[in-house]
Amino acid sequence: MRKLIYIFILISGIACSEGAQISHTETAKLVAESFIHKDNSTLEKYTTPQRYRSLVSVQDMVTSSYSGDTNFKVVRDTVYSDTAWVKFTTSHEQKPETFKLIKKDDQWKVTETGLRERSPF
Question: How does residue 13 score in pLDDT terms, banded at 50, 70 and 90?
Fold first, then answer.
C-alpha cells in the first residue's frame, strides 16, 4: 500500500511540473495584474531584468488610483518562434497596450521593445 502511495505522489509531481509552462497571453495577464496590484515578486518572475526595473520605477506614480479587477482582455496576439506580441486592454487604461515577450528557458517573459522596433499590429 505504501509503495502505491509513493508511486501516486511521484506521478502527480511529474504531471504537475510538466504542466507548469504557461502561454504568452497568460504571462502578459500575470504581468499586467501584478503591476497593477504591486505584486513585485510575480512581476519580477515574468519579466526580464531591464523591463522589471522600468516597470517598478513608474509603478507608484501610475497605480496609485487603481483598484478592483483588471478585466484583462487580449485584443490580438501573435507568435514568431521565440518572440510573441500581445495587445490587450484593462479596465485601468483607455487605450490598448502591447507587450513584447521572449521565450527564455522555456518560460515567456515580458521584455523591452527595442529602439525603433514596432509591434506587428
Answer: low
In this prediction the pTM is 0.80
- Sketch out the chain's domains with CATH numbers: 30-111 (3.10.450.50)
Using a 10 angstrom Cβ sphere, with 0-12 exposed, 13-18 middle and 19 or more buried, the burial of residue 84 is buried
**Closest to 119 in 3D by CA, of 70, 72, 80, 73:** 80
Cell of 12: 502527480
For residue 63 the three cell numbers come to 497605480
pLDDT one-digit tens code per residue, 15-36: 554 456 899 999 999 999 999 9
Nearest-angstrom CA–CA distance, 121 and 49: 25
Distance (Å, whole) CA 71 – CA 57: 24
Mean pLDDT of the chain: 85
Cell numbers of 115, please? Answer: 529602439
